[in-house]
Amino acid sequence: MSGDDTAAGTNSGQASQRLRDSLVVLLAVGAGVVNVTSFLALGKVFSSVITGNLVVLGMAAANVQPGLALRSGLALAGYSAGVLIAAPIAARGRRETWPPAVTVALCAEFGLLIVFTAGWEAGRQQPGWRIALLVLLAAAMGMQSAAVRRLGSISATYLTGTLTGVLTALITSNRPAGHWRDVGVIVALATGAGAGAALIRLAPAWLPALTLLPLAAAIAAASAFCRRIAAPDN
Question: pLDDT digits over 85-100, tens only?
Answer without folding.
Answer: 999 999 998 888 899 9
